[in-house]
Amino acid sequence: MSEPAPRLPSLCVVVVNWNGRDLLPDCLGSLADSDYPDLRVIMVDNGSADRSVEWTRKHHPGVEIIETGANLRWAGGNNVALRRLADEGWPQDHVLLLNNDTIVPGGSLERLCAGVAADERAWAGTPRIVYADDPSRAWYDGGRVGAWSGWVHHAGIRRRTGTLPTRARPVEYGTGCALLVTRKGLAHGGLLDDGFHFYGEDVDYSLRLRRLGAVIRHVPRAVILHKVSVSLGAVSPRKAYLRSRSHVRLLARHWPARRWPVLGPAQLVYHAAHVLWHCWHGRPATALAMIDGVLDEIRHRPVPGAEVDRSADPMVT
Which of 226, 297, 177, 166 is nearest to 23 (CA)? Predict the structure, then answer.
């Protein structure tokens, strides 16, 4: 007789939503169809005005809903759920932070959790993420961080998945699109830094975990589909501004002064190339926004439009 399969870790999936009513049927529907044996789903709604909460209550009554009453953004919304789980004593073995613009194919949660559990050094894990409109191409197949150049990018992006390795392996950072963190990782890593506003929070969290000796384990056989850039647009000025601000914040936090003689010139070339690329493609507003983001972060200016009403008490339903 064959031995019984090992028990899969219990799992809580946290989905932060802000006016994503049109995205929820695919995301929550794929989780409902996953048949994962011990699955808890929490949706944190950041003050949506599109009846997202009402729709979720009606169509997915098993999903727990936390209403923040304000747009706390990705990091702040996830932190609301993480605080609740911490107050409960981390009842699930793993927590998956999942974007609402994703679709989770059957079997992916099982492969991801099993892949992370197979390495006791792994405090976090990531699946392979592919473009939803072209699943044969990867959007994320591991994260790379230039220790001296400061270049942070996805491995395998836009490459055919059939040409990419399938073995599980350590990577330098996990993307917040689908970031699995173990109970041990959460206990040591704490909360996300919501000072990044948008972008960079996942890299910051991954680097903090790795500094503590953790491994971020990438499991390519677990696949998630991503509707890329649904919320802000692929090359919007707002996206360029927030990305450049967050990148400067990340560099200031994690790159020691001894690396700046190399980091400075490398980043100057990096940003200049992107500015010229946007101008060449007829997007001067995006190029200017990228420069403004760098300068505003260096000068510690407030992020425009980032005011958050933190007086609202989260409500659980």
Answer: 226
Q: Which long-range contacts (CB under 8 A, 24 or more apart) does 201-204 make?
A: 201/74, 201/75, 201/176, 201/246, 202/173, 202/174, 202/175, 202/176, 203/143, 203/145, 203/152, 203/173, 203/250, 204/250, 204/253, 204/254
**Token pair 């409109």 is at which residue?**
133
Cβ within 8 Å of residue 151, ≥6 positions away = 144, 145, 266, 270
Each residue's pLDDT tens digit, 88-102: 999 999 999 999 999
The torsion region of residue 164 among left (phi > 0), alpha (psi -120 to 50) and beta comes to beta
Give just the sign of the alpha carbon dihedral 61, 66, 72, 78. Answer: negative
pTM of the predicted protein model: 0.91
- What average pLDDT is seen over the chain? 91
Residues 128/223, Cβ–Cβ less than 8 Å: yes
Query: Who contacts 114 (Cβ-Cβ below 8 Å, separation ≥6)?
Result: 6, 8
pLDDT tens-digit series, residues 197-255 = 878 999 999 999 999 999 999 999 999 999 985 444 457 888 899 999 999 999 999 99
Structure token digits, residue 137: 């191409």
- Tell me what pLDDT residue 299 has: 92
Report the C-alpha gap between 210 and 300 in whole angstroms. 27
62 conformational bin, left if phi > 0, alpha if psi -120 to 50, beta if neither: alpha
pLDDT at site 309: 38
Query: Helices 284-298 & 260-280, crossing angle to 10 degrees?
Result: 150
